[in-house]
Amino acid sequence: MSTTERRGRGLHIGWSSADITPDYPVLIAGQFHARVCEGVADPITATALALGSGDEQAILISCDLVAIADELRDAVRRAVAADLPDVDPLKVVLNATHTHTGPEIREPTLGAGHVSMGTGVDLEARPPTEYVAWAAARIAAAAVAAWRGRSPGRVAFGLGQAVIGHNRRMVDADGQSIMYGNTATPGFSHIEGSEDHSIGLLATYDLAGALTGLAVNVPCPSQVSESEYRLSADYWCETRQELRRRLGEGLHVLAQCSAAGDQSPHPIMCKAAEKRMLELKGRSERQEIAVRLADAVDATLPYLNDTADADPQMIHRVEAVDLPMTRLDAAAVSTAEAEAEKLRLTYEEELEKLRAQPDLREQPRWYVAVTRAYRRMNWFGGVVERFRQAPEGGTRPAETHVLRLGDLAVATNPFEYYLDFGMRIKARSPAIQVLLVQLAGSGTYVPSPRSLAGGGYGSMPASNPVGPEGGALLAERTIALLESIFEA
Fold first, then answer.
1. Residue-wise pLDDT tens digits, 57-75
2. Which of 152, 245, 392, 469 has the most CB atoms lying inside 10 A of its own CB?
3. What DSSP line would sit under 49-99, residue for residue?
């Protein structure tokens, strides 16, 4: 079929959103120690963008969560398929913003690489399975509403700039990498890797030219408030508010986190100067990020309307890419066993304290120390379990989507994908612009080779079921898939 034959079908666009804030106690995801929700700072939301052209389909859904567990994704797809039998459930794509103040959606899975490894004590919070079922129904309803609400529209894309993310790994004089290390010491050598300050935009319009929604792609997770005990969408809350204040209260905002496994909104250099400027402006860190993002949108959006296309070539492909898992040697397994054993002793000591002094349970957050020890014990124990199950390393599938909308591409991966890999894809993509979306799944860190050499959290066996070899293979396969849809 020629390009001319493929076009002429028209693009249909629909938007919807759902509040997925639980009104019952849940665990909050994102730290080694458990956190039982103590309230709601701002809503947890899901936003759905439905796109259809001829036989091609895509429903993109962004969620204010730390990751997208397979169970959540599959439950949403089943519910959508039940209501929309003509929609291919594999064309329903969920991504997380990686807020560290969203409800926990991951079940304890030894060897998974994430830190949500149960609690080790009874807590007054409902299990993640209950929240997953509850949230999946609401997310699916938003997806169905977006699909059924489609109407002819136009899309445009553009590239802005804003300093949001910072590489969070410093390297000391001995070549060791430290997450959030103190750079104001004589031992500081350099920042380990790069930063990406690009802001990708996908704008949707109705046929009358009115802006209906924005996909905003930021190479930075939303974890300013990562240690809080209240539910929050983090900086995406203020960003949505600021964009709607400027562009209209009815604006839909689809949040996407680009490759950013080694990035953070927290600067680790010049902290005093950064803090002073926030005080002079009278803004919180989250408000500052919101203003920077809205300014980037304001600077880019005026140039897009005249380029909006009502009939872009649309192609959506999905592939499960088999990636090699990290090969574990005897030294790595032995180190993990020793760490797990030390933490087992700590966990048992904390349990004994609670048995001997039951009144400790009446203190606020009494469970922090015992759950931290328990989770870290199992985190290191996961290395041993992975080696037991697959001493040669084995493979793990990674669901990957590539979507073409004219000269724009969207490409997803399920990981906290280090920036080096993301930059490789962006630089070599055949599309004029690519929106790379990480955490469209439940994966953990995939570190770059230079980061693995430095070690530390995020770049060590317990963090990395899939290592640099898998990261490079995924980058190359993503590029090949992009090339295939731009040759079609």
1. 999 999 999 999 999 999 9
2. 469
3. EEEEETTEEEEEEEESSS---HHHHHHHHHHHHHH-TTS-GGGEEEEE---
